[in-house]
């Protein structure tokens, strides 16, 4: 989903914390933001493996 303005984005996304991914060839960086969407903080780094293993680790992170 691509938006050109923050209000449009906020209208389409449910309230709560957001997660961010920085997908690289060897690692996936995970970040979260606060409830007011003001500050993002690094959370974890996943070492890339097979897609199914990466997906399972992402699911575990989301469930936390």
Query: Main sheet?
Result: 3 strands, antiparallel
Broad structural category: alpha+beta
Q: Topology as H/E string?
A: HEEEH
Q: How far from one another are the termini?
A: 24 Å
> Mean of residue pLDDT?
90
> Helix segment count?
2
Number of strands: 3
- What are the segments in which pLDDT stays under 50 over at least 5 consecutive residues? none
Oligomer: single chain
Strand order of the largest sheet: 1-2-3
What global shape is seen? elongated
Alpha carbon gyration radius: 13 Å
In percent, how helical is the residue content?
25-40%
Indicate the proportion of strand residues. 25-35%
Characterise the protein shown here.
- The protein has 64 residues and is an alpha+beta fold.
- It has two helices and three strands, in the order H-E-E-E-H.
- It has a three-stranded antiparallel sheet, with helices on one face.
- Strand 1 and strand 2 form a beta hairpin.
- The radius of gyration is 13 Å and the shape is elongated.
- The mean pLDDT is 90.
Which helices and strands appear, and what pairs or packs with what?
Layout: H1 6-12, E1 19-23, E2 27-33, E3 40-47, H2 51-63
Antiparallel strand pairs: 1-2, 2-3
Highlighted features:
3 strands
Brief digest:
The protein is an alpha+beta fold. The chain has helices at 6-12, 51-63, and strands at residues 19-23, 27-33, 40-47.
């Amino acid at each position: 989903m691509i938006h050109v303005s923050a209000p449009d984005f906020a209208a389409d996304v449910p309230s709560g914390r957001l997660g961010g991914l920085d997908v690289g060839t060897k690692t996936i960086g995970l970040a979260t933001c606060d409830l007011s969407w003001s500050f993002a903080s690094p959370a974890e780094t996943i070492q890339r493996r097979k897609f199914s293993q990466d997906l399972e680790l992402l699911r575990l992170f989301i469930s936390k």
